[in-house]
Amino acid sequence: MPMAAQSEQRWILFALGVIALYVSPLFILGENAHIRVHDNLDSNIAWYKVLAESGQITGPLDANIPQIANGQLSRNALGSELTGIVWLHALFPTMTAYALSQTIIRVVAFLGMYLLLKTHFLPERRWMAVRIGVALAFALTLFWPSGMLSTLGMPLALWAFLNIRKGERSWKNVAVLTLLPFYSSFVLGFFFFLSAMGALWLLDVLRGKGWNIRFFLSIAYMTLLYLLVEYRLVYSFLWEDEPTSRDEYFHARLTFWHCVRLTWKNFLLGHHHVMTEHTLFILPAWFIALFLIFANQRWKEERVFLFLFGLNFALSAWYAFWFYKGWLPLTERFHFLDTFNFARFHFLRPLIIYVQFALALKIIWQSSEKGKTWAKRLLAAQIILVFLLNEELVFRYEPTVKQFYAEKQFQEIKQYIGLPVSEYRVVSIGLHPAIAQYNGFYTLDTYNNFYPLSYKYEFRQIIERELAKSKTIRTYFDEWGGRCYVFTAELGKRYMFTKHAKQRLKNLQLNTEQLKNMGGRYIFSAVPIDNAAENGLALERVFTSDESAWTIYLYKVQ
Description:
Blueprint: H1 3-29, H2 37-41, H3 44-54, E1 64-65, E2 73-74, H4 84-91, H5 94-121, H6 128-139, H7 154-165, H8 171-179, H9 186-206, H10 213-229, H11 231-239, H12 256-269, H13 282-295, H14 303-321, H15 328-333, H16 336-339, H17 349-365, H18 369-388, H19 391-394, H20 401-405, H21 407-417, E3 425-429, H22 433-438, E4 446-447, H23 453-469, H24 471-478, E5 483-484, H25 512-517, E6 520-525, E7 537-543, E8 552-557
Parallel strand pairs: 3-6
Antiparallel strand pairs: 1-2, 4-5, 6-8, 7-8
Helix pairs in contact: 1-5, 1-6, 3-4, 4-5, 5-6, 5-7, 6-17, 6-18, 7-8, 7-9, 9-10, 10-11, 12-14, 13-17, 14-17, 17-18, 23-24
């Protein structure tokens, strides 16, 4: 084996070692690890556990999940049993499943970006450091965990598609297109990616490059596979006619200038679901490269970089202007424009940003000896940045997994109530209902964006007087409603009051008769309710625990 190839293999192994070090806190600390709460601990992780314990992982299309939303949450709202992450959480304890998932995703992200750069963008031997370094940085980004490979699997998919587009016949390409749908989401990433591949195929046709049937069939094959994997979602979308909470999602409300500001914010800072961490070092690299291109009149040679730069900005503008109120006439006429989030085309940006970064480093590197030095510095700085933006460090001030779910504390509550959990319903105030769900309680409240609209109206009666006091929570609930929570005007859109919080509810106004009619018997409140008696509530007991982030005030509906 040539020395250069051996050297590259050693650096690849070193990069994989860095990834292992990056995920090691999850394996070492387990439940004492700090991980993301938003759209993670407060939802998906609890859903996987509830689904695993419901006996409905492979349930029929018309099955419901008894434990959530008074049994009105459809089984189809919790993902397909053909998705790998569901089985990880069914077969392993929560943090083991989470750690394994993080490892799988980051290794695949690294290998995908490395192969894409080596095969199609930076094949020359001298760019070894750039392609390995950029692939490592990409694999360490602070992405949305439950997205699986929905964004971080795109480089590997693009590698396979570009191989097929060039006429390569290999089982590896087919294997990639076959396996990715089982560990990613169609609506959270690959719908938009495959749309882009379809646009690329059509552009080739229009440019006279032929019909390239194999490329077209590969796109169709992966699309069909996604539809089969996510058959529950397809069924719900096409054949269920009962209105859902998605039917009252109104996104088009921003002014033109607000959208302009949001465009620049997204372009410069990114989005929390697809955190690229590109602002400090990647962005300057782009602009240095852009200056060098125009200074040296190399726009023809670097047209790929310029195209990606323009596409990158266009996707930020698309994301921002999807929320422009000028869409209203169209959304009123074509309802699917409200129920499906087309803004997510910006989920293509992580792929584009890091390929663009690699090309920028190449441009800077080859400009001069000083440029080579600066390219290395920018690459090293980006790797160090994303490595330090580890969940354990970023979320160190949030509760640990153990503190968040507080299993020992909620077991005490369960024992104190002394009834089978299926015989009563609970709601939470000041903390996420996912915590009660994770601990086996049957809840009226939920965080899910796909439940019956009739249930939303039914639940709204419990909090209607609180919603009337605050336009903020009223708009949040009525025009989205994904968080079907017991909102209060005094607490607003906050739902994580730890045991160190000083807040109290002084003027709570709930419709406890409606709560009772729906089966609600207990309230888990993270803050004391001063006027509990006025609401027909009686404080049963206060539960505290050194292992918990919460003080739970247990109120019983009289």
